[in-house]
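Need C-alpha cells for this chain, all 384 residues.
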Amino acid sequence: MILGICSIGSLFIGVVNSIYSPLLPLIKESLGLTYTGSGMFTTAYFVGYTFGQIPWGIVVDKFGGRRAISLSILGLSVCTLLSGFANSEIEVVTWRFLSGLVGAGIFVPGIRTISEWFPSGRRGIAIGVFGAGASIGGILAASVSPIIALSHGWRWSVYSFALLGFIEVPLIWFLIRESGKDRASQFDSKKRDTPIRKWSFWVLGFDQFVRLGMVYALSTWLPTFLIENHDLPLVQASTSISLMSLVGLISNPMGGLVSDRVGEKVVMSFSFAAMTPCIFALAVSRNTLLIWISIFILGWLTNFIRGPAFAILPKLFGVEQAGRVTGYQNTFAAFGAVVLPFVISFLRDQTASFEMGWLSLILFCGMGFVSTLLLRSSQINRER
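Here are the C-alpha cells for all 384 residues:
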C-alpha cells in the first residue's frame, strides 16, 4: 500500500514533467518564444525544483511523508493550472518556477518513506517501482496531451492534467502511513552528521547531475528535434517521450532488481558507458530506424540507473537521514535538469543545429562513467 500510494505521487510528477515537451512547438509559437526562451521555460521549473530539494528533505525527516507529499501535490496542481492561463514569457516562466519549488516535495519524501519501510536488500526494486510511476505519468501525458492540444489548444491540455493532482491529494493524505519511528528525535540526533565531508557524496552528486540532466535534455528537445530534422508530425514525434516512459515501466524496477543483486556501482557505470553510442547516433545518423532504436535504449538506460542511484544513499548515510541526503543529492540532479536542456537550447540557437547539443551530452556521460569508477566499492557498506 505504501509503495503504491507513493507511486501515485510519482505518477503526477511524470505527468507534469511530460505534458509540456510535446506542446513546446505550440507554446513557442503561441507566446513568441525563441529556442533559448523555450529552454528557459523548462529551466525555470528545475531552478525552483533545485531550490526546493533540501527544504523538503528536512520537512519529511521531521514531519513525515504523508504531510509533505500531500502539500506538494496540492501546490503543484495549483501552479500547473495557473500556468495554463499565462499570456507572456514572464508569466509562464514564473508559474513554472513555482511549480518546481512546490513540486520538489514529492520525490524526496517518497524516497524517504520507502527507505523507512523496505530493507536494504529490497530497497532497489522498491525505488524502481516508485520510479515506474513517473514513467506511467509520462506515457499518459505524452500520449494524450498533443491530442487534446490539437483539438482544443495547448492550454486545455495543461488544465486537464492539473486536475489529476487535485484527485490525488486526498488519496495521499488518507492512505500513507508513517513507520511509527520517533522522527523528531532522529532529526535532532543526526543534525551533526556531515555527509558532505565524504568523497562518495560528491561523486554521487555529479552522477545525479548527469542522470537527470540527460533525462530532461532528451524529453525537452526530442519531439522538436524529430519534427525539424526528420519531418515527423507532432503526434508521432511526441511518441518519443511515450516510448521512453513505456520502456521505463520495465527498466525502472529492473535496474533496482539488478542493483540489489550485483551492486549499485556496476549498474550506474554500465548505464553511463552505454548511453554514449546512442547519443552519438542521435547526433549524426539520418536513418530513422536507428534514431528510434537509440531513443528506445536511452529510455531504458536513463530509467535503469534511477533506482541504484537512490538505493545506495541509505547504505552510505543511514535511513534516519535519508530525506535530507536525498534532498542534497536531488539538488545536484535538479541542477543537471536545469543546465543540460539549456545547453542544448543555447547550442541550437548558436549553431542552427541540434548536433552539437547532442554531442555535448557524450562528454557529460563520459564524465559520469569516470566519476562512478572513482567510487570505491569498500565505501558502500550495508546499512547500519
